[in-house]
Amino acid sequence: MKKVVLVTGASAGIGKATALVLAQGGYTVYGAARRTEKLDDLKQAGIIPIAMDVTDEGSMRAGVNIILAKEKKIDVLVNNAGFGSYGAIEDVSLTDARYQLEVNLFGAARLIQLVLPSMRKQRWGKIVNISSIGGKIATPFGGWYHASKFALEGLSDSLRNEVKPFGIDVIVIEPGGIKSEWSGIAFDSLVKVSGKTAYSSMADMFANAFRGTEGKNPEPVIIGNLIKKAIKAEKPKARYAAGFMARPTLIARKLLSDKQMDKLMMSQVKSMGK
Questions:
Q1: What CATH number should be reported for the domain holding residue 140?
Q2: Which residue range forms the structural domain that includes residue 86?
Q3: Is residue 270 situated within a structural domain?
Q4: Predicted confidence pLDDT, tens digits, the chain (274 residues)
Q5: Which of 108, 120, 210, 211 can pair with 79 through a Cys bridge, CB separation 3.0 to 4.6 Å?
Q6: For the chain, what is the domain count?
Q7: Residue 135, Cα to own-chain centre: how many angstroms?
């Protein structure tokens, strides 16, 4: 019997690539997004579109119930929906900060709560949380984004040991730079929020530096393939990483002190942001 997968944020980027990889791999895939018209091109690959807003309780509950009513199970949840809202912590409104956490953290957590009963019942499941290397290191201007991803990492660590006795694996994916709309949106946000404040000079430098890496970012299919590898593994690792500068950055974080990491990060940004 085919494994049933729910992928959130499936309309673009990593979510779309993952949905396609898994559908081609023989999984029954439900691709979720707020606007299902953005999922029309996935239908020809056999992906079933489903409307879901991860900031809306009713929407999430209804989406999960639709899948359970038809398939009787959800074997794999890929919590991919998310975005990066950048700006100096002083400049970002708490309304925007709360929304960042609502999408990146609480939406994922609520979906986990909704799928766990069926996974526990069958004593098998895979929960894949898409974090980031930004869940291990934090750059200036990404404070609320990093807060959401650091929190998702901690949530995943706690959850992993809670659900292991039920045969459920929790897997964290830590992408580095990936070709998608994400970086453009994030750094346009940075310039809009902090481009004319006391932080403007540094904000412009950061935006230029990160835009300069876009041509080096690989296609999101590498993350889709990584997720497929992880969920097929009988004993998956707790974390997987791929993408531009992912592994070197995570190794540096392990080896360097906080001061050394700050110095390395800022020197790289200054050289790229000129």
A1: 3.40.50.720
A2: 4-181+219-243
A3: no
A4: 899 999 999 999 999 999 999 999 999 999 999 988 889 999 999 999 999 999 999 999 999 999 999 999 999 999 999 999 899 999 999 999 999 999 999 999 999 999 999 999 999 999 999 999 999 999 999 999 999 999 999 999 999 999 999 999 999 999 999 988 766 777 788 989 999 999 999 998 988 887 777 778 999 999 999 999 999 999 999 999 999 999 999 999 999 999 999 999 999 888 775 5
A5: 108
A6: 1
A7: 10
Catalytic residue, chosen from 86, 145, 199, 240, is: 145
CA 251 – CA 159 distance, rounded (Å): 25
Q: Is 27 a catalytic residue?
A: no
Q: Do you know the residue count of the chain? A: 274
Which neighbouring-strand residues pair with 130?
A: 173
